Amino acid sequence: MDNLKFSVAMCVYGGDKAVFFDEALASVYNQTRRPDEVVLTVDGPVPDSIEEVISKYVNQEGLTVCRLEKNMGHGVARRTGLSHCTYDYVAIADADDINVPTRFERQMALFEVSPQLDAVSSGCYHFVNTTDEVLYEEFLPETDVEIKKFLKRRCPLCQASTMFRKSKVEEAGGYLDWYHAEDYYLWIRMYLCGAVFQNTKESLLYVRSSPDYVTRRGGWKYFKSLARLFGYMYKHKVIGLSDYLFNVSSRFVAQVLLPTSLRGWLRKVVDK
Hints:
Layout: E1 6-13, H1 18-29, E2 37-43, H2 48-57, E3 63-68, H3 74-83, E4 89-93, E5 98-99, H4 103-113, E6 119-121, E7 124-127, E8 134-138, H5 144-150, E9 163-165, H6 166-171, H7 182-192, E10 197-199, E11 205-208, H8 213-216, H9 220-235, H10 241-257, H11 260-271
Parallel strand pairs: 1-2, 1-4, 2-3, 6-10, 7-11
Antiparallel strand pairs: 4-9, 5-11, 6-9, 7-8
Helix pairs in contact: 1-2, 9-10
């Protein structure tokens, strides 16, 4: 039963490619269950090509466009978009990924059957160029128990395919900046607030992979960001000392010592 209404929150900034943004926004509307509202946050100045895409959809029913004068980054942009969402159920959508047409139908059905859920995500297909060129499929644990165990070692939800209850996210403090890990940081804080998670059995998103993806997920700055996050988890008793030491040491090897080519291979193997 389509009883619950939901919003979609998407952010776009000047560095996004207009053609990818167009495909992503089209996939939000080309759904078996269309959103009741789409909130698009424009994070600072964008080129004319991005503005042209926005103008294509500006007359879509339920579209709200929020603009930030300066580029503020993911945390602020997502927080701004979320504050403008009318409904308690909010789906996150990225400006360069493509949603499977049944994504919203599948996720809303889970919320309607299990109202205790606070966040629902899914696995995803990593692709290049077109969705026919899938590099690999990333699988995530399905049940709340499995997800909370997985959370102690790795990010347990795919942010770009996550739908959650706005009220629970706000209870956890909302989106806050954390270098390349604002989503993981949010899931941890929701865990501490007693949130209930689930991932769908099937993948509901095509994630666009870029040549520099693995490079951006490595190096000292990225390692230090995750090491601080594991420190936060240890401080708040999400993990014990042994898990903390394992997480930090294994990330040091993978993100600092390994060459980029091997890091990319390792990520594909682990995600499978």
